[in-house]
Amino acid sequence: MELYVEETKRLIKAVVEKNAHGELKKMIDYHFESWGKLNRPKAVGLLAQALNANALATIGWAAGLEMFHNGTLIHDDIQDGDILRRSRPSVWRKFSKNLAITGGDFLMVNASECILNSDLDLEKKHMLITLFNRLASEVMDGQCREFKLSELESCKGISNRYLECAGMKTASLYANLAKGVGIIANAKEETQVDLEDIFYKLGLLMQMQDDIVDLYGDKQRDMQGNDLKEGKVSFLIVKHLESNQSNFEVIKKLLSRKRENILRGEILIIKEQFIRDGTLARALSELMDRSYALLQHEYLQKNPTVESVISIFIEELLKPLDGMAETVLQLNQGLSKQIIGQRYGAQL
Hints:
single chain; 348 residues; mainly alpha; 2 domains; globular
């Protein structure tokens, strides 16, 4: 897998070298000095292997998706005001907002070149480009939904609205990623549908985990709680409001404040409150329940090679949460054990 990921990176660098020049290339090179976790290329490579597809034929698809994803990250940092990305100054902070917008545009537009450079026939390239356009549109739809959700008009249906937002912004990329690999592997239509469903659910898990880690883990940003400072309705906010609707106005007021006016001490208070009122425990419980349910998917039960791919990603996303669950149980033994469950508590 290491060689596969390196080949994916090589293709991205080749497209950048060919099409970017001057200040634009300097900016893109800076962004890719740190590559992040590269989950999407890993997912493409592992799934291709599980489906017995030609790995080399999928590298263009992996590179295109990763290039597009990185373009959205550059734009996200501008919209959210994040000054750090991967423990370094974000692109807009290093160069300027105007230049960073252009850099993000460049990556998203040139992603299709990676796909077109694939060693595939014209029919499959056309199918993948069509699929890419669909997933790009869905991701942008998700971003719009996130801004609308952040207005926090009411608690009504907040869980469903969060899932719709996360589904478009994060899960759709994984769902279409899997469908693309299915197309390359000549998988049957029903298999492609199953893969889309499985990877969509995996994408939701990744977004939920990311929201939890933002407040209680390390995302290589300047501090914990960036989602709160950015006014985002995260998975933790959703779980809190589901059981504490009387706090709606307080939460809405907090999320509407400018990020620079939310103090570190306030974030620490919210972290402790979410532990003591069971919010974190409920979030961890739902994440674990959804992970277990995904592994019981009928298709995975019949296809152990694909099941092993999903298991790898679920193991990785749950790993940073183990310490959190232990902390929850230590600080709030009674309520948290009821929520998380004796089974999980016994493992700690």
